């Protein structure tokens, strides 16, 4: 099995890559933006887990990176986890913030699908990582939330267009304890509220990885265009 995970050097992406390696994937390639140290450390962990490892450095929306992804050959699993965005109120954003966030979080999945889906064997899976901000209004999250809503819509369209051979789904996480929370001015409040879900703890990167692994397994053959929410019940109460 050959797996490619964007944003795979840290946080949720790292957990997903390691999950596939530990589950027996022959080759796990990770994409990352610029942190060489983190990427090399994750690559070493992947090798220790028994997987051949590759690294693709750069902006996932760039033609160069897309060419390198296409050159990987047939993928059994594509996970688009890389995400970015400007975290501020709507009226304090610029068009350049919109373009940057939408391109990286939503358009990139379509670009990746164009270069990978034609090579994928029957039974391959594409999974996108979303968040509750696609459906719920979160403070300062207007650009990221809107991009995640677009991402989920794209998942549904691709699920139909790439069927029956390939599956496309998404995993939407609640508050996940990763370094990404450092970018939020209300980090403390997010941690408090996120951990007060019915399950009684924050979502972990490994929780997200487990959901991705399920969607890519034969047990999920009839799960198509679905957004699997992993939030400990956070979104259930009114």
3D structure, described in words:
By secondary structure, this protein is α/β, with parallel strands linked by helices. Helices cover 39% and strands 16% of the residues. It has seven helices and seven strands. The protein has helices spanning 11-22, 36-48, 63-70, 95-116, 142-161, 187-194, 205-215, and strands at 2-6, 27-32, 52-57, 77-80, 125-131, 167-173, 227-230. Strands 3-2-1-4-5-6-7 form a seven-stranded parallel beta sheet, sandwiched between helices. Strand 5, helix 5 (142-161) and strand 6 form a beta-alpha-beta unit. Helix 1 runs parallel beside helix 2 (36-48), helix 1 (11-22) crosses helix 7 and helix 3 (63-70) runs parallel beside helix 4 (95-116). It is globular. The mean pLDDT is 94.
Structure keywords:
alpha/beta; seven-stranded parallel beta sheet; 7 strands; 39% helix
């Amino acid at each position: 099995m050959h797996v490619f995970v964007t944003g795979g050097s840290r946080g949720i992406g790292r957990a997903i890559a390691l999950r596939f390696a530990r589950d027996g994937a022959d080759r796990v390639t990770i994409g990352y933006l610029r942190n060489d140290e983190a990427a090399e450390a994750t690559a070493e962990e992947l090798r220790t887990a028994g997987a051949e490892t590759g690294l693709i450095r750069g902006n996932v929306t760039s033609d160069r990176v897309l060419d390198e992804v296409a050159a990987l050959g047939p993928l059994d699993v594509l996970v688009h986890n890389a995400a970015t965005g400007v975290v501020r109120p709507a009226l304090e954003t610029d068009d350049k913030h919109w373009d940057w966030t939408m391109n990286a979080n939503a358009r990139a999945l379509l670009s990746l699908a164009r270069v990978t889906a034609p090579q994928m064997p029957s039974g391959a899976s594409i999974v996108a990582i979303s968040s509750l901000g696609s459906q719920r209004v979160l403070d300062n999250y207007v650009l990221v939330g809107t991009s995640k809503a677009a991402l989920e819509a794209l998942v549904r369209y691709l699920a139909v267009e790439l069927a029956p051979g390939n599956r496309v789904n998404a995993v939407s996480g609640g508050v996940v304890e990763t370094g990404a929370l450092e970018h939020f001015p209300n980090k403390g409040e997010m941690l408090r509220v996120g951990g007060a879900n019915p399950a009684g703890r924050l979502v972990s990167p490994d929780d997200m990885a487990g959901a991705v692994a399920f969607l890519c397994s034969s047990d999920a053959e009839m799960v198509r265009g679905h957004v699997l929410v992993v939030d400990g019940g956070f979104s259930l109460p009114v």
